[in-house]
Automatic annotation (TrEMBL):
Organism annotation: Citrus sinensis (Sweet orange)
Name of the protein in its database record: Leucine-rich repeat-containing N-terminal plant-type domain-containing protein
GO terms for cellular component: plasma membrane
Keywords: Leucine-rich repeat, Repeat, Signal
Residues covered by the Leucine-rich repeat-containing N-terminal plant-type domain: 9-55
Keyword Signal found: yes
Pfam families: LRR_1 (PF00560), LRR_6 (PF13516), LRRNT_2 (PF08263)
InterPro entries listed in its UniProt record: DNA_repair-toleration, Leu-rich_rpt, LRR_dom_sf, LRR_N_plant-typ
UniProt key word Signal: yes
Entry GO MF terms: signaling receptor activity
Amino acid sequence: MHGYDGCLEEERIGLLEIKRFFISINGGEYADEILTSWVDDGISDCCDWERLKCNATAGRVTELSLNRLKHYKSSNPNNSSDGVIILDLSLFPPFQELQSLDLSENWFGGVSESKAYNSSGNLKQLKILNLGNNRLNDSILSYLNTLTSLTTLILCDNSIEGSRTKQGLANLRYLQVLDLSGNPITGRFIARLGLSSLRNLKRLDLSNNYGFTTPSQ
């Protein structure tokens, strides 16, 4: 049995907003296959829904696995002026105890600027973030640099170059694992990523980048 009466209402509403978002980036297609247990029936406990975990005592969401929710066969709607699929960071402020977030393999090419800093700043407990296998470029780094509690950051197989950032990830002083493999980073711009400031870093993967042939460390 849970040690609580059910998930928090604000988090249940937030989860349903996330479901609507992923249905929208699929152009309304495959709606009956996306987060099917996330239903607004007024009965089910959202802590029992798929792809998430809750704190055993407080009932707050601590883990969200939202990977591969953009169906590869669905239409690619224009939710920005240039047709790039934008990750809406304003979806996540309700989850104040979120510790692990997986958003990999969703074709995200950017993040929304509206409320972005406020929303990311609310993720004060976030330890693990997986944004691998998307289409994110250097613009994501300024948002990630506000997530100062991160210990693991996965950015493999994106479009990060390091050429358009000043501070990189220098604020992430607790970071222990950083995966930047499979990006078009060159030795010319590696210093701009702020890696020398990451004193607690134990594992760094720069494999399969332009100019890097060394394996992960």
